[in-house]
Amino acid sequence: MYQHTMIGTAWRGHHVVLLRCNPFTNEFLSISTSFEAPTEPSHIACAETLSRFLSIGYKIMNATMISATEIQYVLTKK
Fold first, then answer.
1. N or C: which end of the chain has fewer CB within 10 A?
2. 10: in domain
3. pLDDT higher than 80, residue 12
């Protein structure tokens, strides 16, 4: 059933986080998030940053090489 969005109501959709990393050096490069997305502090190591987000309930929806040395992970959480 469709619910109208109302000012002041809690967000009930998906949260999205984009993580960009160098998969060859395990270097964390950047993060972008949807508004109000719960986050964890990032770490210089990409694997540790991914681990932190997975531990709070995010799931990896996609991983794409966006350049020769950069991968982008799309994480979502309900």
1. N
2. no
3. no
Amino acid identity, position 63: A
Q: Look up the domain containing 50 and give its range.
A: 15-77
Half-sphere exposure of 14 (CA within 13 A, CB side): 10
In a domain, 23, yes or no: yes
Write the pLDDT tens digit of every residue in 53-76: 999 999 999 999 999 999 999 999
Q: Residue 21, exposed/middle/buried by CB under 10 A (0-12, 13-18, 19+)?
A: buried
Strand locations in the chain, DSSP E? 15-22, 27-33, 59-67, 70-77
d(CA 16, CA 11): 12
Global pTM? 0.82
- Asked if residue 53 lies in contact with residue 32, where contact means CB atoms within 8 angstroms, the answer is no
